[in-house]
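Re: that backbone. Tokens:
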């Protein structure tokens, strides 16, 4: 049996709440390290919110453009002109919209440092998305011009 005198006392169960003022003043980096998890959480929430807003705006703009194209096709004064520029099946529904969003994600248009405002990057993403949508159409229907 172990004698009570041989067992060391247990460590205190109460963790220190904050840094001692003298230690805080002598090591300013400790303040930054103490707030690190809060800063990371704040940056993550900000980035998630930014990507969600950009994605929602892109979906809304694609939907509005699709509706405008449908309205122009239905207009009595412009169906021939619109059909000449945008044949039926062009801008083909949710699949094409999703392909454009995937193209934007792939080229990094939703990345950091205001990359979404770079017109060249957005054009590359939309072109890639349109290429994906058109490739799917070609793969399903073939290249015959009927």
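Recovered sequence:
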């Amino acid at each position: 049996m172990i004698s009570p005198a041989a067992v060391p006392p247990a460590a205190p169960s109460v963790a220190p709440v904050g840094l001692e003022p003298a230690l805080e003043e002598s090591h300013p980096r400790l303040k930054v390290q103490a707030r690190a998890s809060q800063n990371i959480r704040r940056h993550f929430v900000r980035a998630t919110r930014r990507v969600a807003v950009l994605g929602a705006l892109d979906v809304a703009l694609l939907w509005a453009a699709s509706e405008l194209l449908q309205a122009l096709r239905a207009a009595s004064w412009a169906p021939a002109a619109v059909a000449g520029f945008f044949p039926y099946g062009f801008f083909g529904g949710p699949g094409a919209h999703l392909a454009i969003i995937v193209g934007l994600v792939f080229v990094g248009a939703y990345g950091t440092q205001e990359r979404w405002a770079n017109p060249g990057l957005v054009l590359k993403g939309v072109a890639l998305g349109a290429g994906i949508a058109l490739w799917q159409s070609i793969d399903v229907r073939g290249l015959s011009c009927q």
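Residues 54-141 form one domain. Helices lie at 21-26, 29-34, 36-74, 79-85, 94-107, 119-141.
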